[in-house]
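[job 4471] stage=fold_predict status=RUNNING
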Amino acid sequence: MKLSLNSYTKRDTNIIKGFAILCIVLHNYFHWLVPSPGENEFDFSPARVHSLFDLLGQQPGEFVNILFSYFGHYGVQLFVMISGFGLTLSMLRREQGWGEFVINRLKKLYPLLITGVVVCLLGCLVMNGRLFNQGEWREIGYKFLFIHTLIPNSGLSINGPWWFFGLIFQLYLLYPLLFRCMKKWKWQTFLVVCAISYGLIFLFREYLNLHHGTLLMQNAPGHLPEFCLGMVLAFSKDKKIHWLWLVLAIALFVWGNFTPGFYPFTFLSLCVITVFATQAWKAKTGRWKKFFRFPFSVLHYFGGISMTLFIVHGYFRTPVLKWANTLTGAWGHLASGLLFFLLVWGIALAAKPLYQWLQGLFEQIRVKKEIKAVSILFQVAFLLFFLYVGAYYVRQNRTQPSASLTPTLHVGNGKVLPTDSYVSLASFPIEENHLVLHIKGGFDVKKDQEIQPMLVADIQKTLWIIMDLRQSAKGEWTHYDFSFDYLRPFVNRIKGKDLKIYFWNRDQKEMEFRDFTIFVN
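[job 4471] inference complete, writing structure tokens
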């Protein structure tokens, strides 16, 4: 039994983008709201999927929160697939050279990024009473150069969802070559790209263990299969695919959520499942079409404003979350999610005129024929930079713990009070410009309300990272072990600064801790 592949219309792609942006926006809100199982997005932990089922069993009323928290990030993969599809249809109508293509893409990216920076700058002024500091402007500079996902600990800075800009820009750089290969060999190109991508992922994750494998999953090599799936769909109009591919995709998606070695396949599998679901729906007729006409019209609308929703939503979570984490009921959490969505929807609509105006300005830029020589130099420069970053990560893997920074500190017992913004646990002076700092430790915690302890490691203007801590039982002592390897970005210097470890009491709640031990080398 086979399914016909009919080409997606503009409305079809907007519906998919609308569904994807709803998943992304709600995911980026709910995964900061207790209870949250976490997500296997850039790395994999079996504890997260076990936490998913445990929380669904213990708190079934929170299923919206929990499901979006765990699965919502897959909306990014749908955007990647639709991007490959749309670019290919456009290129089939009129082929472009590498330089012209990339500049035309930049003319799309920069208005969006500038709009996001302006809106977030105003948000920082309103919420924090200040403008961006030097470190934040530096991170924004990385994003305008689209190198933030190549610099350790910068991919999720300022506004977490903006890591996508680094990924999509790299895919744009590769696209003209992929298009030529796909035009000539189609499915063979797709299979070769998948083999290369998954080979690199497993090499980096399983053998080199470079930065916990996140380098590949925040950059193009980790998502080429989804991008090329969109491309091959554009080339395969009126073709047929066997339903066994759907069975295989479902099996890989389920298996990949339990098995570390197969989790990279879940991204492509989800896209394949989406293709089958949408194509089967397009083939249907009758009352079901009429019944879903309104929901699909809603998705079509949000797909049309998905870019402005995407660019603004991540920065405005904190004020709503601060209130939402004082609530204890599932209905309250659901209402807070709806409030957050309405807030960012309004901000996106307010930002849309600025975005459209900037689009008009950038569209006036004309590409000259002389750009070819410049584009070749740019390709070489970016390739050399990518290789340099790869070498830097390899060096991290080869670096042994330093003998000159080996403090072990037993903090003992203490309390975090509702009036405490943060509780300092340790401060270590850094005497050398270390390449890697290894931070690990453990403690017991007891809390009376549904909060998640927020443990922060901080180096002024260089590092601010929240340790990944599991959920703890309410009213019981629960033991945590934490570990984090800080790879110093090659653009920063940490000698003479202090590494600080502290609890961040974001929710203004009370908890107790005991036997807190920290080891750094």
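[job 4471] summary: Strands lie at 2-5, 239-242, 408-416, 422-429, 436-447, 455-459, 463-466, 478-487, 498-504, 511-520.
[job 4471] exit 0
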